[in-house]
Amino acid sequence: MKSDNPVGGKGKTVARTLGEKAAAAVTAKGIERGTRFSASSADVKAEGDTPTTPTTTEHSPNARPTGYAPAITEVRPDVLEGARRPLTVADLFAQETTSDSAVTYFVEGAVTGAPTAVGEGGEYPKLEFGDPTPKTDALKKIGCIYKDTDELLADAERLAQSIDNRAEYLLDITVEDQLLTGNGTGNNIEGLLNRSGLQTATCAGMNAAIKAIKKAKVGIKKNTPGFRADALLINDEDWDELTNAQDANNQFLAGGPFYGAYGSSNGPVEEPPLWFLEKRTNSTKSSRQTDEQA
């Protein structure tokens, strides 16, 4: 007579399906309710096969299913920007537009003679103006090319905006570097620091540097009448040392961390002006170099 519970051995039931195998594993191992385990369909035996002991792999009840990882991961569409160097040079220059490929300007020549008081019947002094010297600056082009696909603009608008912003920033930085340090050769602009007629000074120590900056400011007024220095461009590290300068009583000349400068009842100023000049710092310049911009 055929049994309803075929056995592979005396008293042992053969698991026909994966569900029966799982039930057998629970019974055989005494697994508690809520415990996870695995059962392979490859181990399910047909009727008449020799049964094997079910194998289980126990897992932590609090284990995170790997398939849920995308669902529990926050994705932010914004692009985190890297460090940006402040733009401090370009806006010190007046800006105009032209449709020509070069700009020629004239620098007045030397003057011989001078007006003087003349008595009745006296001879007037002769005044001669030297020929002006023409100077020509060819227009220079600064630019780049990059590509945003239509799909990127449509599907990742914020990423496209980030690329645009970064490209414009890199362009502005290149313009500033050219205006300041361009060597004038090839397609380069002749930058401010490579122009003729710049004042130079040598000083040792920050106190001497403070005096040298004041002297340079006066020098602009003296040597180019009608012009005044309106800004101070200084290296970041030099400015840090300069604002750390102290007197014999260890008081900070530019004001301490909790009080203002000498004679001031106001609190400290984060970026105090020096000799009433607007201060601009620039990290690309060589150390120990300062300039007054007229």
H/E topology pattern: EEHEEEEHHHEHEE
Q: State the strand order across the main sheet.
A: 8-7-9
Strand content: 5-15%
Instruction: Please report the distance between the alpha carbons of the first and last residues.
Output: 115 Å
Number of distinct beta strands = 9
Helix content: 10-25%
Largest beta-sheet characterization:
3 strands, mixed
Quick gist of this model?
With 294 residues, the chain is α+β, with helices and mostly antiparallel strands.
Description:
It contains five helices and nine strands. The chain has 294 residues and is of the alpha+beta class. The longest helix is centred in the middle third of the chain and has 25 residues, at 157-181. The model is unreliable at 1-9 and 285-294 (pLDDT under 50).
Give the tags.
about 290 residues; alpha+beta; three-stranded mixed beta sheet; two-stranded antiparallel ribbon; 5 helices; disordered N terminus; disordered C terminus
Topology:
Blueprint: E1 7-9, E2 12-13, H1 18-29, E3 102-107, E4 111-112, E5 128-129, E6 133-138, H2 150-155, H3 157-181, H4 206-223, E7 231-235, H5 236-243, E8 278-282, E9 290-293
Parallel strand pairs: 7-8
Antiparallel strand pairs: 1-2, 3-6, 4-5, 7-9
